[in-house]
Amino acid sequence: MSLRSRVVPPLAAVVTAASLAACGGGGGGDTANKAEVPISATAASGELDTSATLTFADPFQNDTIDPAKNDSGFPTRQLNLVYDRLIGIAPSGELTPQLATKWEFTNPTTLRLTLRSGVKFQDGAPFDAAAVVKNLDRSRDLPDAGAAVSTPAEAIKDVKASGDDVVEITLKKPRYSILYDLAQNLGMMISPGSLSGSLDRTAVGAGMYKLVDFKPGVSATYERWDGYWDPDAVKLAGFVIKSIPDAQTRINALQSGQVTMSLIDESQVRDAKGASLRVSEEATVSAWTMFLNLTRGELKNEQVRQAISHAIDRKALVETLGHGHGEPAVQLFPSSYEAYSQDWPAAKYPFDVAKAKELLAAAGHPDGVEFSALILNRPLDKQLGQALQRMVEPVGIKLSLKVVEPARYSMFTDGEVDMFLGRWGGRADPADTLKSNAAKGGFINPGGGTAPDFQALMDKIDNTPTGDARVKLVQEASAIFAQRQLDIPIFARRSIFADKGCVVGFTPYMVGADEYRGVGVRKNCD
User: Fold this and answer.
1) Disulfide engineering: 82 pairs with which of 62, 205, 415, 468, CB 3.0-4.6 Å?
2) Based on the domain organization, do 108 and 150 belong to the same domain?
3) What does the pLDDT look like over 384-402, one tens digit per residue?
4) Do residues 14 and 8 touch, judged by C-beta distance below 8 A?
5) C-alpha distances in angstroms, 443 versus 3, 175, 439?
6) Is residue 237 assigned to a domain?
């Protein structure tokens, strides 16, 4: 992910160029041959079925289509289809123009956005500076907005239109990560005419597809919007996202033709390939992690945290739970990500029972320690918890697992348990990911425990504009996070997609929700 803010060509052109570079040949032929074509490959316009509807099987469920209330990054792909954002994100995480063509900080607390002219919302209303002001004012005033919107909105002091195409955002204090906030839910632009009503089940945006039906937790159905400002990005007549939590049900639906493409689990890759399905995977900022409450008991002690880390055989977990798809991690980022610090690879915390026991003894606990660990009632989560429980026991560390339904995750953020074993997809801005997990006020850091040197770096990053200097500071903060094990990452996951070789122009995203600009389906392909 790039932490640099720069203007690049329109996003459709970026996708096309990246796709052509990845394309190893044309399509056609039987299913086996189609499966050899990279999923990111493009096809000539005559090879695409522009009357096709792409149906995607998603393991995540979405209860609201309102960007301000939708606080999870995983189902945001549903919002991206109908809502364009002020700033876009490329698959690698780099900021790109979308509804704003350029941006600059005129001073540390004033951000000026130049808007794309001639854009309309799906109800025909003009997209202009006044519409941006109304959207951001709504986010600032909405009492039940989720943290992904309420936190950055709280940082805004004022929003003003300067003519039709320029917006000035005044911040209460420097927050250079506001650029990344505007590339996520906060920057999703809603037609002003629909702002006064409920947006839980209806949506009118300026995106590629119109929402025609939304069933919370079940499905979202879209149709092509012919008035989209970048028509080359829209290659399908329609799009359907079905929420199918069960992994086997998803792959069955793919094989039977009920869906066109699906996210699959690591355990299914071999069987999917054996069934002549095409499989594509991408490293992501999502990692299985022990999220810690640094204000509870012995987790305050750095040596205890390091002992836990040495007691974990990360390579074994990648091979078993990850089926070889992933990499051991002691940072919150994969090694291919720009925020990753090369100074603290996973090899710094090798699986070493003797070292773990030595650290526990040095911390004053030669007879061991015990922690309560929250885990969600889902198969992979429970397998991880049980595996970790067995791994750390010989060291003298006892994990008392508390298995709860996902809705009770707040037991951790409310400070009722020592740790939470699970995964989180991070934020578009890696500095915000680090802050959320281990800085004072971080929403996944109950009690606000931290390390002074880490907090000092995070404060410095807040006052550093995007660019090389900020990149270096984030890497330094990630190294301190890893050294002190402010949380205990286990292994970085990958996003794994499967289809029958029919989808073209799709590149999995390393950070943020996947998008479908320029994505199409080839003719005569099933």
Assistant:
1) 205
2) yes
3) 999 999 999 999 999 999 9
4) yes
5) 22, 17, 9
6) yes
* Residue 34 pLDDT: 46
| pTM of the predicted structure, to 2 decimals | 0.85
Say yes or no to pLDDT of 526 above 80.
no
DSSP-derived pairing of the beta strands 520-521 and 397-404: unpaired
Q: What is the model's pLDDT at position 94?
A: 87
134 and 36 part of one domain: yes
pLDDT at 26 over 70: no
Pair 268, 183 in one domain? yes
Lowest-confidence region among 343-352, 393-402, 418-427: 418-427
Is 145 in the same domain as 294?
A: no
Q: Which of 100, 91, 62 is nearest to 186 (CA)?
A: 100
Closest to 169 in 3D by CA, of 116, 214, 103: 103
Asked if residue 507 and residue 472 are part of one domain, the reply reads no
30 Cβ contact list (under 8 Å, min separation 6): none
In terms of domains, do 135 and 64 share one?
Answer: yes
Q: What is d(CA 124, CA 408) in angstroms, rounded to the nearest whole number?
A: 42
pLDDT at residue 466, rounded to an integer: 83
**Is the residue at 403 inside a domain?**
no
Measure the CA–CA gap between 130 and 133, rounded to whole angstroms: 5
CA distance 346 to 485: 11
Is it the case that residue 139 has pLDDT exceeding 90?
yes
Backbone angles phi, psi at 183, to 5 degrees: -95, 5
Q: pLDDT per residue over 67-126, tens digit each? A: 999 876 667 889 999 999 999 998 888 899 999 999 999 999 999 999 999 999 999 999
Which CATH number characterizes residue 203's domain? 3.40.190.10
The Cα-based distances of 431 to 266, 285, 455 in angstroms read 28, 12, 12
